[in-house]
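[audit] Reproducing an earlier prediction to check determinism. Same input, same settings, fresh worker. If the tokens differ from the archived copy the diff job will pick it up downstream; this log only records the rerun itself.
[audit] input (248 residues):
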Amino acid sequence: MMKDLRRNDPDRADLAAALRWTARMNLHEAVGNHFSLALNEDGSRFLINPNARHFATVRASELIEIDANDPRTMDRPDAPDPTAWGLHGAIHRACPHARCVMHVHSVHATVLASLQDSRLPPIDQNSAMFFGPRTVIDEDYNGFAFEGEGERCATLLASPKVIAMIMGNHGVLVIGQTVAEAFNRLYYFERAAETYIRALQTGRPLRIMPDAIAEKTAQDWEGYTDFAAAHLAELRAILDAEGSDYGT
């Protein structure tokens, strides 16, 4: 019997672990939301979680590989969710720099996306990670992210500086060069959004950083080049110690 090399693929295992931990933090929504990871240089070939599967159950070998340029994708027996194809397919076609794409409807990020002013001000060290051109706000929600909507969203990620998109009336999307980088950004975006929403609830004035300090702090974050990898490695170690089957 031919050995299934997918079971020993570290990229698959990282993506499966990120899905599992996202569910553990309750950042997912039902059996929707999707994570994808580019496999080739132009990003057109990518992995994505299987359709209608809970994040908490996905295993590395079950991630599906699809071609963003193949119009027959939705005719496959293992076709992804139409919105996964529409959004992630469009992004991987148009934005080769967006190697890993994670989209969720997590509570605090979605609360932020539901405000008339969805900006995330730099009120703490975590929110400063997303300061300035690192975040874009989609102000023109037009329904489910089928192909046309996905292509529109992809245009907002054209700049390689963008690491997060606050999707008005929808949720949040983060990108990274690796699974670890994207997941770390997802984790910190939700933490930052929660801090901001809770701060607003006090009704007291916010302590917003000056732009120069916010930019310096964002650059400090960018200097921690091994931090994201260490974060995911620790989460995988916890899953391994628990006997999780995410990597199989």
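[audit] rerun output stored. Observation attached for the diff report: The longest helix spans residues 179-202.
[audit] end
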